């Protein structure tokens, strides 16, 4: 289908006109009567008064004027049979002047040597360009949401609440965060860390669940002499009053809890047990021999107390 420019005179080649009897012999001396149908409307004689003239081999040159091509759409040209030649039919497409010129003019600006297509209008509106001749596009809706009342995209303002996280000199600094995370050591999805120090009060009685530390949760030999550094437990390690009668459960210290030879003379300092450690007023003495225990009379106890008052030699 040939494309024609709107409201523009043009010559078209019509045919072939062949003999109506044998269907192949070219008819060269005819004066065809041309009818036109514009965009599907009723057939009518063409407006241009010039009769088609024979060119060659049964083809004729037909002139159409601006009126003949004045309607955008399909243009059908027919020549009825006059009994000499068979009928002829052609179809054309008439397009707007701007479209035709953009496609077929010698300096058509719809394309360039790079194959670029230039769009002059969008939905009938002239396209505006911003910096560097880029289209200035304004979006009214996003996923069927009117942007004039609701913004489905977060603002790109630095550190704005709900905004896009961008790196800047404010509190939300992705570069600073990356610098810190680059220093972490990972084991799969776990972060490996060495505890260098803790703030005072981080670990308290209320911070530890009841029964969090029990004998069943401590491995055998987990606490042994070889696991405790020399001098790790000294008097300065314990707070004043940390170990008193209330801190020791009933029966916690008995014969079974003290190893054989745990208390010997070489483990007791000189004068560790002296006169000042005796309360003679409450001394109640039983003398035990290998075979029996002798109970002392009241006087005998006084005598022993008297001796103790003078010291044990």
Structure description:
The protein is mainly β and 313 residues long. Among the domains are: 2-95, Immunoglobulin-like (Sandwich); 100-129, no CATH class. Helices cover 9% and strands 19% of the residues. The chain has three helices and 16 strands. It has helices spanning 97-104, 174-182, 298-309; strands at 2-5, 10-14, 34-38, 44-45, 53-56, 59-64, 73-79, 88-95, 121-122, 125-126, 141-142, 145-146, 185-187, 190-192, 286-288, 293-295. The protein has a five-stranded mixed β-sheet with strand order 1-8-7-3-4. A three-stranded antiparallel β-sheet has the order 2-6-5, with no helix packed on it. Strands 9-10 form a two-stranded antiparallel sheet. The N and C termini lie far apart (139 Å). The model is unreliable at 287-292 (pLDDT under 50).
Question: What is the secondary structure topology, with strand pairs?
Answer:
Elements: E1 2-5, E2 10-14, E3 34-38, E4 44-45, E5 53-56, E6 59-64, E7 73-79, E8 88-95, H1 97-104, E9 121-122, E10 125-126, E11 141-142, E12 145-146, H2 174-182, E13 185-187, E14 190-192, E15 286-288, E16 293-295, H3 298-309
Parallel strand pairs: 1-8
Antiparallel strand pairs: 2-6, 3-4, 3-7, 5-6, 7-8, 9-10, 11-12, 13-14, 15-16
